Amino acid sequence: MKLSAPPRVVAVVGPQGVAKNAFWESLMQLARTDAAPPQPRPGTPEENGSAEALSVVTAEFQGGQWTFIDCPSAPESFQETQHALMISDAALVICDAQAAPAGTLAPLLHFLDARRIPHLLFLNALDESGASVRALLKSLQVLSGHPLVLREMPLREGERMVGVVDLVSETTWGMKADREACLIPIPDSQRPIEEAARRQMLERLADQDDELLEALVEDSVPPPETLHEQMARALRDNRLVPVFIGSAERGWGLLRLLEGLRQEAPTVEETRMRLRLTAEGGPLAQCFKTYHLPEEGPQCLMRLWRGPVEDGSTLAGMRIDGMLRPQGATRHSVKTARMGEVMAVGRLDQIRAGDLLEADGVRRPFDWPQ
Protein backbone atom coordinates (compact mmCIF):
# COMPACT_ATOMS: atom_id res chain seq x y z
CA MET A 1 0.00 0.00 0.00
CA LYS A 2 1.32 3.43 -0.94
CA LEU A 3 1.39 5.77 2.03
CA SER A 4 0.68 9.36 0.99
CA ALA A 5 0.87 11.20 4.34
CA PRO A 6 4.18 11.52 6.21
CA PRO A 7 4.58 9.21 9.21
CA ARG A 8 3.43 10.35 12.63
CA VAL A 9 5.16 9.56 15.93
CA VAL A 10 3.40 8.91 19.24
CA ALA A 11 5.13 8.36 22.61
CA VAL A 12 3.43 6.01 25.08
CA VAL A 13 4.16 7.18 28.62
CA GLY A 14 3.01 6.64 32.17
CA PRO A 15 4.37 6.09 35.68
CA GLN A 16 5.03 2.69 37.16
CA GLY A 17 1.99 0.73 38.29
CA VAL A 18 -0.51 1.87 35.62
CA ALA A 19 -0.47 -1.29 33.45
CA LYS A 20 1.47 0.45 30.66
CA ASN A 21 3.06 -2.86 29.61
CA ALA A 22 -0.41 -4.37 29.10
CA PHE A 23 -1.43 -1.29 27.10
CA TRP A 24 1.68 -1.59 24.91
CA GLU A 25 1.15 -5.29 24.24
CA SER A 26 -2.50 -4.74 23.30
CA LEU A 27 -1.47 -1.83 21.07
CA MET A 28 1.10 -4.00 19.29
CA GLN A 29 -1.49 -6.70 18.65
CA LEU A 30 -3.71 -4.10 16.98
CA ALA A 31 -0.77 -2.73 14.98
CA ARG A 32 0.06 -6.18 13.65
CA THR A 33 -3.31 -6.38 11.91
CA ASP A 34 -2.18 -3.63 9.53
CA ALA A 35 1.55 -4.03 9.74
CA ALA A 36 4.03 -6.85 9.61
CA PRO A 37 4.39 -10.26 11.26
CA PRO A 38 4.44 -10.38 15.09
CA GLN A 39 7.45 -8.67 16.61
CA PRO A 40 9.45 -9.79 19.65
CA ARG A 41 8.66 -8.05 22.92
CA PRO A 42 10.65 -4.77 22.81
CA GLY A 43 13.15 -3.51 25.30
CA THR A 44 15.28 -6.63 25.74
CA PRO A 45 18.47 -6.23 27.79
CA GLU A 46 20.55 -7.59 24.88
CA GLU A 47 19.28 -4.85 22.60
CA ASN A 48 19.27 -1.83 24.83
CA GLY A 49 21.29 -2.70 27.90
CA SER A 50 18.27 -2.38 30.17
CA ALA A 51 14.73 -3.67 30.34
CA GLU A 52 13.76 -0.07 31.14
CA ALA A 53 15.06 1.32 27.83
CA LEU A 54 12.68 2.81 25.30
CA SER A 55 11.47 0.74 22.36
CA VAL A 56 10.38 1.84 18.88
CA VAL A 57 7.86 0.08 16.62
CA THR A 58 6.55 1.28 13.24
CA ALA A 59 3.26 0.02 11.82
CA GLU A 60 0.54 0.91 9.34
CA PHE A 61 -2.97 1.81 10.45
CA GLN A 62 -5.73 2.56 7.96
CA GLY A 63 -3.34 3.70 5.27
CA GLY A 64 -1.07 5.76 7.49
CA GLN A 65 2.36 4.99 8.92
CA TRP A 66 2.77 5.34 12.67
CA THR A 67 5.80 5.03 14.90
CA PHE A 68 5.06 4.26 18.55
CA ILE A 69 7.74 4.81 21.20
CA ASP A 70 7.35 2.83 24.41
CA CYS A 71 9.00 5.09 27.00
CA PRO A 72 10.50 3.74 30.23
CA SER A 73 8.47 4.27 33.40
CA ALA A 74 11.25 4.24 35.98
CA PRO A 75 11.95 7.67 37.51
CA GLU A 76 15.68 7.28 36.85
CA SER A 77 14.91 6.99 33.11
CA PHE A 78 12.82 10.16 32.95
CA GLN A 79 15.41 12.02 30.88
CA GLU A 80 15.24 9.36 28.18
CA THR A 81 11.45 9.72 28.20
CA GLN A 82 11.77 13.51 27.88
CA HIS A 83 13.99 13.13 24.82
CA ALA A 84 11.50 10.82 23.10
CA LEU A 85 8.65 13.21 23.89
CA MET A 86 10.53 16.10 22.31
CA ILE A 87 10.46 14.52 18.83
CA SER A 88 6.93 13.07 19.08
CA ASP A 89 3.82 14.51 17.47
CA ALA A 90 1.74 13.53 20.51
CA ALA A 91 1.96 11.61 23.78
CA LEU A 92 -0.41 8.97 25.11
CA VAL A 93 -0.46 9.17 28.92
CA ILE A 94 -1.69 5.97 30.57
CA CYS A 95 -3.57 6.37 33.88
CA ASP A 96 -4.93 3.49 35.94
CA ALA A 97 -8.45 3.94 37.27
CA GLN A 98 -7.78 1.39 40.01
CA ALA A 99 -5.11 3.51 41.63
CA ALA A 100 -5.36 7.09 42.87
CA PRO A 101 -3.40 9.50 40.62
CA ALA A 102 0.09 9.30 42.01
CA GLY A 103 2.49 12.17 42.42
CA THR A 104 4.63 10.42 39.82
CA LEU A 105 2.24 11.71 37.16
CA ALA A 106 2.87 15.32 38.11
CA PRO A 107 6.43 15.64 36.65
CA LEU A 108 5.30 14.04 33.39
CA LEU A 109 2.26 16.29 32.94
CA HIS A 110 4.26 19.34 33.98
CA PHE A 111 6.89 18.55 31.33
CA LEU A 112 4.24 18.08 28.64
CA ASP A 113 2.58 21.37 29.59
CA ALA A 114 5.84 23.31 29.80
CA ARG A 115 7.02 22.05 26.40
CA ARG A 116 3.59 22.44 24.80
CA ILE A 117 3.58 18.82 23.66
CA PRO A 118 0.08 17.69 22.62
CA HIS A 119 -1.08 14.78 24.75
CA LEU A 120 -4.06 12.53 25.39
CA LEU A 121 -5.04 10.57 28.49
CA PHE A 122 -6.21 6.95 28.50
CA LEU A 123 -8.10 5.95 31.67
CA ASN A 124 -7.40 2.26 32.05
CA ALA A 125 -9.44 -0.46 33.81
CA LEU A 126 -12.65 1.48 34.42
CA ASP A 127 -14.52 -1.76 33.74
CA GLU A 128 -12.83 -3.43 36.72
CA SER A 129 -12.65 -0.61 39.22
CA GLY A 130 -16.15 0.84 38.94
CA ALA A 131 -14.47 4.18 39.58
CA SER A 132 -16.31 7.43 39.01
CA VAL A 133 -15.05 9.14 35.86
CA ARG A 134 -15.97 12.53 37.28
CA ALA A 135 -13.96 11.89 40.46
CA LEU A 136 -10.96 10.62 38.47
CA LEU A 137 -10.98 13.64 36.18
CA LYS A 138 -11.24 15.99 39.16
CA SER A 139 -8.17 14.44 40.80
CA LEU A 140 -6.22 14.41 37.52
CA GLN A 141 -7.20 18.00 36.65
CA VAL A 142 -5.24 19.22 39.68
CA LEU A 143 -2.09 17.82 38.03
CA SER A 144 -2.74 19.26 34.57
CA GLY A 145 -2.27 22.81 33.39
CA HIS A 146 -4.90 22.40 30.66
CA PRO A 147 -8.58 21.39 30.67
CA LEU A 148 -9.17 17.63 30.59
CA VAL A 149 -12.00 16.95 28.13
CA LEU A 150 -13.79 13.62 28.28
CA ARG A 151 -14.09 12.23 24.75
CA GLU A 152 -15.97 9.08 25.77
CA MET A 153 -18.60 8.26 28.37
CA PRO A 154 -18.93 4.81 29.99
CA LEU A 155 -22.22 2.93 29.86
CA ARG A 156 -22.83 0.96 33.04
CA GLU A 157 -25.13 -1.71 34.38
CA GLY A 158 -24.75 -1.21 38.09
CA GLU A 159 -21.01 -1.03 38.76
CA ARG A 160 -20.12 -2.92 35.56
CA MET A 161 -19.08 -1.05 32.42
CA VAL A 162 -20.84 -2.56 29.41
CA GLY A 163 -20.02 -0.01 26.71
CA VAL A 164 -18.88 3.49 25.82
CA VAL A 165 -20.29 6.45 23.91
CA ASP A 166 -18.05 8.50 21.62
CA LEU A 167 -19.15 12.01 22.56
CA VAL A 168 -18.03 13.51 19.23
CA SER A 169 -19.89 11.15 16.89
CA GLU A 170 -22.44 9.89 19.46
CA THR A 171 -21.59 6.35 18.37
CA THR A 172 -22.16 3.73 21.08
CA TRP A 173 -20.10 0.58 21.46
CA GLY A 174 -21.03 -2.44 23.54
CA MET A 175 -18.19 -4.36 25.17
CA LYS A 176 -17.50 -7.95 24.15
CA ALA A 177 -15.11 -10.53 25.52
CA ASP A 178 -13.16 -10.68 22.23
CA ARG A 179 -11.36 -7.35 22.42
CA GLU A 180 -13.29 -4.76 20.33
CA ALA A 181 -16.99 -4.19 20.49
CA CYS A 182 -20.09 -3.88 18.35
CA LEU A 183 -22.32 -0.90 17.65
CA ILE A 184 -25.37 -0.66 19.90
CA PRO A 185 -28.06 2.00 20.43
CA ILE A 186 -27.78 4.31 23.43
CA PRO A 187 -30.14 2.94 26.10
CA ASP A 188 -33.01 5.33 26.83
CA SER A 189 -32.02 5.38 30.50
CA GLN A 190 -28.54 6.65 29.54
CA ARG A 191 -29.66 9.26 27.03
CA PRO A 192 -29.93 12.20 29.51
CA ILE A 193 -26.51 11.34 30.97
CA GLU A 194 -24.98 11.18 27.49
CA GLU A 195 -26.53 14.49 26.45
CA ALA A 196 -25.21 16.21 29.57
CA ALA A 197 -21.72 14.74 29.07
CA ARG A 198 -21.66 15.76 25.41
CA ARG A 199 -22.84 19.26 26.25
CA GLN A 200 -20.04 19.58 28.79
CA MET A 201 -17.48 18.41 26.20
CA LEU A 202 -18.80 20.94 23.67
CA GLU A 203 -18.70 23.75 26.22
CA ARG A 204 -15.10 22.94 27.19
CA LEU A 205 -14.16 22.90 23.51
CA ALA A 206 -16.10 26.12 22.88
CA ASP A 207 -14.08 27.84 25.60
CA GLN A 208 -11.18 27.44 23.19
CA ASP A 209 -13.04 28.03 19.92
CA ASP A 210 -15.09 31.16 19.15
CA GLU A 211 -16.69 29.57 16.09
CA LEU A 212 -18.08 26.68 18.14
CA LEU A 213 -19.15 29.02 20.93
CA GLU A 214 -21.23 31.05 18.48
CA ALA A 215 -22.83 27.86 17.15
CA LEU A 216 -23.74 26.68 20.65
CA VAL A 217 -25.29 30.03 21.51
CA GLU A 218 -27.49 29.59 18.44
CA ASP A 219 -28.31 25.97 19.46
CA SER A 220 -26.54 24.70 16.35
CA VAL A 221 -24.00 21.91 16.88
CA PRO A 222 -21.53 21.32 14.01
CA PRO A 223 -21.36 17.82 12.46
CA PRO A 224 -18.81 15.29 13.81
CA GLU A 225 -16.37 16.02 10.94
CA THR A 226 -16.19 19.68 11.98
CA LEU A 227 -15.87 18.76 15.65
CA HIS A 228 -12.92 16.49 14.82
CA GLU A 229 -11.25 19.43 13.05
CA GLN A 230 -11.85 21.72 16.02
CA MET A 231 -10.59 19.08 18.44
CA ALA A 232 -7.50 18.58 16.25
CA ARG A 233 -6.74 22.33 16.34
CA ALA A 234 -7.17 22.46 20.10
CA LEU A 235 -4.92 19.41 20.58
CA ARG A 236 -2.28 20.74 18.19
CA ASP A 237 -2.22 24.09 19.99
CA ASN A 238 -2.09 22.32 23.38
CA ARG A 239 -5.25 24.06 24.58
CA LEU A 240 -6.91 20.96 26.01
CA VAL A 241 -6.27 17.28 26.79
CA PRO A 242 -8.71 14.70 25.33
CA VAL A 243 -9.48 11.77 27.65
CA PHE A 244 -10.29 8.28 26.36
CA ILE A 245 -11.36 5.23 28.40
CA GLY A 246 -10.95 1.47 28.11
CA SER A 247 -9.12 -1.60 29.36
CA ALA A 248 -5.57 -2.30 28.25
CA GLU A 249 -5.67 -5.86 29.60
CA ARG A 250 -8.76 -6.74 27.55
CA GLY A 251 -7.93 -4.58 24.57
CA TRP A 252 -11.12 -2.52 24.93
CA GLY A 253 -11.07 1.02 23.64
CA LEU A 254 -7.68 0.95 21.90
CA LEU A 255 -9.08 0.83 18.38
CA ARG A 256 -11.23 3.90 19.09
CA LEU A 257 -8.17 5.60 20.59
CA LEU A 258 -6.19 4.92 17.39
CA GLU A 259 -9.10 6.32 15.38
CA GLY A 260 -8.99 9.46 17.49
CA LEU A 261 -5.26 9.80 16.88
CA ARG A 262 -5.72 9.29 13.14
CA GLN A 263 -8.32 12.06 12.99
CA GLU A 264 -6.78 14.55 15.40
CA ALA A 265 -3.08 14.00 16.15
CA PRO A 266 -0.67 16.66 14.80
CA THR A 267 1.35 16.01 11.66
CA VAL A 268 5.13 16.16 11.33
CA GLU A 269 4.80 19.56 9.65
CA GLU A 270 2.86 20.92 12.64
CA THR A 271 5.37 19.43 15.09
CA ARG A 272 8.27 20.89 13.15
CA MET A 273 6.57 24.29 13.35
CA ARG A 274 6.05 23.86 17.12
CA LEU A 275 9.77 23.20 17.48
CA ARG A 276 10.56 26.27 15.35
CA LEU A 277 12.38 24.28 12.69
CA THR A 278 12.16 25.61 9.16
CA ALA A 279 10.61 23.70 6.28
CA GLU A 280 13.15 25.01 3.76
CA GLY A 281 16.53 23.45 3.14
CA GLY A 282 18.12 20.06 2.73
CA PRO A 283 17.75 17.00 4.95
CA LEU A 284 17.43 17.68 8.69
CA ALA A 285 17.36 14.97 11.37
CA GLN A 286 17.39 15.11 15.15
CA CYS A 287 19.00 12.51 17.38
CA PHE A 288 16.98 11.64 20.49
CA LYS A 289 18.89 8.61 21.77
CA THR A 290 22.36 7.10 21.41
CA TYR A 291 23.29 3.55 22.32
CA HIS A 292 25.98 0.96 21.56
CA LEU A 293 25.66 -2.42 19.84
CA PRO A 294 28.52 -4.89 20.46
CA GLU A 295 29.16 -5.74 16.80
CA GLU A 296 28.06 -2.49 15.17
CA GLY A 297 29.28 0.21 17.52
CA PRO A 298 27.50 3.49 18.38
CA GLN A 299 24.01 4.03 17.02
CA CYS A 300 21.82 7.15 16.84
CA LEU A 301 18.04 7.00 16.94
CA MET A 302 16.79 10.05 15.08
CA ARG A 303 13.69 11.58 13.52
CA LEU A 304 13.83 13.08 10.07
CA TRP A 305 12.34 16.59 10.02
CA ARG A 306 13.19 17.24 6.36
CA GLY A 307 13.91 14.65 3.80
CA PRO A 308 14.22 12.26 2.20
CA VAL A 309 17.56 10.73 3.19
CA GLU A 310 19.05 7.85 1.23
CA ASP A 311 21.65 5.29 2.17
CA GLY A 312 24.99 6.69 1.03
CA SER A 313 23.98 10.33 1.42
CA THR A 314 25.62 12.70 3.90
CA LEU A 315 24.55 13.79 7.38
CA ALA A 316 26.68 15.79 9.80
CA GLY A 317 29.41 15.83 7.16
CA MET A 318 29.68 12.02 7.23
CA ARG A 319 28.52 9.43 4.72
CA ILE A 320 25.65 7.23 5.88
CA ASP A 321 26.58 3.59 5.51
CA GLY A 322 23.38 1.76 6.40
CA MET A 323 20.06 2.94 7.80
CA LEU A 324 17.88 0.80 10.02
CA ARG A 325 14.22 0.99 10.97
CA PRO A 326 13.94 -0.14 14.61
CA GLN A 327 11.12 -2.60 15.16
CA GLY A 328 11.05 -3.57 18.82
CA ALA A 329 13.94 -5.95 19.47
CA THR A 330 14.72 -6.23 15.76
CA ARG A 331 15.88 -3.82 13.06
CA HIS A 332 15.18 -3.72 9.32
CA SER A 333 17.53 -2.24 6.75
CA VAL A 334 16.05 0.55 4.61
CA LYS A 335 17.43 2.35 1.57
CA THR A 336 15.43 5.56 1.95
CA ALA A 337 13.88 7.37 4.92
CA ARG A 338 11.20 9.96 4.28
CA MET A 339 10.25 13.02 6.28
CA GLY A 340 8.70 12.10 9.62
CA GLU A 341 10.28 8.67 9.95
CA VAL A 342 12.36 7.39 12.86
CA MET A 343 15.56 5.60 11.86
CA ALA A 344 18.76 4.31 13.40
CA VAL A 345 22.09 5.31 11.86
CA GLY A 346 25.49 4.05 12.95
CA ARG A 347 29.00 5.44 12.99
CA LEU A 348 28.08 9.09 13.45
CA ASP A 349 30.80 9.99 15.91
CA GLN A 350 30.34 12.58 18.66
CA ILE A 351 26.58 12.93 18.13
CA ARG A 352 24.52 13.57 21.30
CA ALA A 353 20.82 13.34 22.02
CA GLY A 354 19.23 16.58 20.86
CA ASP A 355 21.72 17.34 18.09
CA LEU A 356 20.26 18.56 14.79
CA LEU A 357 22.03 16.96 11.85
CA GLU A 358 22.18 18.68 8.48
CA ALA A 359 24.10 17.51 5.44
CA ASP A 360 27.30 19.35 6.29
CA GLY A 361 27.17 19.94 10.02
CA VAL A 362 25.62 19.66 13.46
CA ARG A 363 23.93 22.28 15.59
CA ARG A 364 22.63 22.20 19.12
CA PRO A 365 19.07 23.36 19.93
CA PHE A 366 18.92 25.93 22.69
CA ASP A 367 15.95 24.36 24.51
CA TRP A 368 16.78 20.64 24.59
CA PRO A 369 16.12 19.17 28.09
CA GLN A 370 19.33 18.33 29.92
Automatic annotation (TrEMBL):
This is GTP-binding protein. SUPFAM superfamilies: P-loop containing nucleoside triphosphate hydrolases (SSF52540), Translation proteins (SSF50447). Pfam families: GTP_EFTU. It comes from Stigmatella ashevillensis. Residues 47-266 form the Tr-type G domain. InterPro entries: P-loop_NTPase, T_Tr_GTP-bd_dom, Transl_B-barrel_sf. The keyword Glycoprotein does not apply. Keywords: GTP-binding, Nucleotide-binding.
